[in-house]
Amino acid sequence: MVDRFLTLNKESESLYKEKGSKFIGIALPVQSEDEVKTQLELIKKKYYDARHHCYAYVLNPEGTQTRANDDGEPNHSAGDPILGQIKSKNLTNTLVVVVRYFGGTKLGVSGLITAYKTAAKEALDSNEIIEEEVRIRVQLKFPYAEMNEVMKLVNEQDLKILDQGYEEMSILTVSVLVSRKENLDERVTFLNNIGHQIFLTS
C-alpha cells in the first residue's frame, strides 16, 4: 500500500528545435482523467495551429493508470518517449504534452523519438518534484476528559488535525496515512476495551 508518491509542484514548459520543427513541452500535475481532458483541451485551444499535440500521463498513487498518445505521429514515436520520461522520474499524477509545429523537414522515427523525449525531459527538469501523502479523513468523538489520551493518539499515529469542534462530545477531524489506518482502528479498539470512550468514524 503506497502512502507517499512523487508528483509535480506546478506547470512548466520547454522549447526544443530540430530542422525547423518546434517542440513545446508542457508538464503539469493532474489528479484525474477528467482533469487530463480539461488540460488537453486548454492546451489544444492555446496551440490551435500546431500539427500535433502528443501526450502521456500517469495517474493514481501507485502509478497504475497510464496512457500515451502519438496524435498522428508514427506509432510509438511520440507518446511512449514522453511516458518514458515521466516514469524515469518515478512521477505519478503527472501529464506531459508536447506540441509540434512542423518545419517542413521530416525527422524520421528516430529523430521524432529524440525530439519528443528531449522536450518532455526538459519540461520535467524545469519543474519541481514534490512528495505527496495519501491520507484518509476520519473523525474522533470523545468526552473532553479523554483529550489527553486522544492527543497521545494524534502523536503516536502521525495524525494531522484538520478541524476541531465541541458539542456534547469533543470532535476532532484528522487525516491518517492510508498505511496506518488499520493500526489506528486497532489502537482505538484497544483503548475502548480498557475503559476509554473514543469513537472513530470514517
Concise structural overview:
This protein is α+β, with helices and mostly antiparallel strands and 202 residues long. It is built from five helices and eleven strands, in the order E-E-E-H-E-E-H-E-H-E-E-H-E-E-H-E.
Supply database-style keywords:
single chain; 202 residues; alpha+beta; Ribosomal Protein S5, domain 2; Alpha-Beta Plaits; five-stranded antiparallel sheet; 5 helices; 11 strands; elongated
Describe the 3D structure.
The protein is an alpha+beta fold. It folds into two domains: 4-131, Ribosomal Protein S5, domain 2, CATH 3.30.230; 135-201, 2-Layer Sandwich (Alpha-Beta Plaits), CATH 3.30.70.240. It is built from five helices and eleven strands; from the N terminus they run βββαββαβαββαββαβ. Helix 2 (79-88) runs parallel beside helix 3. The longest helix is centred in the middle third of the chain and has 18 residues, at 108-125. The chain is elongated. The mean pLDDT is 95.
Fraction of helical residues: 25-40%
Q: What is the CATH superfamily label of the largest domain?
A: Impact, N-terminal domain
Q: Unreliable runs, pLDDT <50, ≥5 residues? A: none
Overall CATH class of the largest domain: Alpha Beta
Strand order of the largest sheet: 2-3-6-4-5
Radius of gyration: 24 Å
